[in-house]
Amino acid sequence: MTGIQEDIEAAAALLAAATDVTLLGHVRPDADALGSALALGHVLHRQGARVRVSFGEPDEAPETLAWLDADGLLTPADALPPTDGLLVALDTPAPARLGRLAPRVAAVRAAGGSVLVVDHHATNAYYGTHHVVDESAEATAVLVTRIIEAMGAELDEPAARGLYAGIVTDTSGFRRASPETHRIAARLLEAGVDPSEVARRIIDDHPFAWLPMLSAVLSEAQLEPEGAQGFGFVHTVVRAAEVALVRSEEVESVIDVVRATREAGVAAVLKAAGPVDGSPVWTVSLRSAGDVDVSAAAAELGGGGHRMAAGCTVTGSAEEVLALLREALGRAPLLRAS
Ligand code: AMP
Ligand code: MN
Ligand code: MN
């Protein structure tokens, strides 16, 4: 038996015996974090456990992901009980990415409780008591599917839709999905997931205000053909005035347009998240076309992520942040001999 299969079976045994479970995703949760947590939460709830799903910020789940919560498990961070039974952290490489819920990890461990970490980040800090961590998994949802199957639990439609949502988004619409992950997706479809509904509700659903916002933001895009060690660097900025007009879903969609630029091996979008104490703050999305390890550049700026998709939060003017990115990308490891 491989190491990961043993870890999956240990996690399945832990979960099968649990009666009170808090499942947490990372701050500003995406479909992988929330879909994984809600799917596993649904299975445990169906088993009779007391279950809640939460995240450190913002206060409410993104509108496009709330429908994954078939059982009303989503609980605002402030409404969580003071102590946790079993704590499960999903898609979260380090406690800091839980934001204000981070202290719960140490609290559960200090009380002798269990913390299960399920994640696919190479930088995972192994901060739990039990770990299912596999950087070769394209999504945390792949690992959660395997855990649910190891529990012998039925994969029904409400569980499968969250898992499918995590996989379709983290693989960029199956562009980066192994044959095994396609097989897992097939089992999720057999459980009743409607793939067109998932795509329409999570990926292709924006209010009209999205179009003028995109128009303004894309008109500021710049290409630096010699940037990113000669692979090309394209970037743009979503300023506070534009962020104010739309939801987070519209802001997060910009990187998927910009990253398709042929002349650029690296794409960045700076998204206004501040100001904090009078200084502009930006959350930065970085994507690689496969030549440059953007997780290394993000890590240099205090963030992290995967080789092809990473991010960080940086304070300063947009020009200052871009200067830091140019330098970090100039030093980032290359991913293939060229
Ligand atoms: P995003 O561009 O926000 O979709 O982020 C891409 C990936 O980068 C995420 O899946 C995370 O793994 C990682 N990431 C984004 N922001 C941060 C951050 N501030 N700190 C650490 N990792 C991050
Ligand atoms: Mn994520
Ligand atoms: Mn993920």
Task: Summarize the SSE layout with pairings.
Blueprint: H1 3-16, E1 20-25, H2 31-46, E2 50-54, E3 86-90, H3 103-110, E4 115-119, E5 130-133, H4 140-150, H5 157-170, H6 179-190, H7 195-203, H8 210-218, E6 222-224, E7 233-238, H9 240-243, H10 248-258, E8 266-272, E9 281-288, H11 294-300, E10 304-305, E11 309-315, H12 318-331
Parallel strand pairs: 1-2, 1-3, 3-4, 4-5, 7-8
Antiparallel strand pairs: 6-7, 8-9, 9-11, 10-11
Helix pairs in contact: 1-4, 2-4, 2-5, 4-5, 5-6, 5-7, 8-10, 11-12
One manganese (II) ion binds next to helix 2.
The CATH first-level class of the largest domain comes to Alpha Beta
Beta-strand portion reads 15-25%
SS element count, helices? 12
Assigned CATH superfamily of the largest domain = inorganic pyrophosphatase (n-terminal core)
Mean pLDDT: 97
Oligomer: single chain
What is the global morphology? Answer: globular
Would you write up a description of this structure?
Helix 3 links the parallel strand 3 and strand 4. The radius of gyration is 20 Å and the shape is globular. 38% of the residues lie in helices and 17% in strands. The longest helix has 16 residues. It has a six-stranded mixed beta sheet with strand order 6-7-8-9-11-10, with helices on both faces. A five-stranded parallel beta sheet has the order 2-1-3-4-5. The chain folds into two domains: 200 residues, inorganic pyrophosphatase (n-terminal core) (Alpha-Beta Complex); 122 residues, Roll (Diaminopimelate Epimerase, Chain A, domain 1). With 338 residues, it is an alpha/beta fold. Helix 4 packs antiparallel against helix 5, helix 5 crosses helix 7 and helix 11 crosses helix 12. Adenosine monophosphate binds next to strand 10 and strand 11.
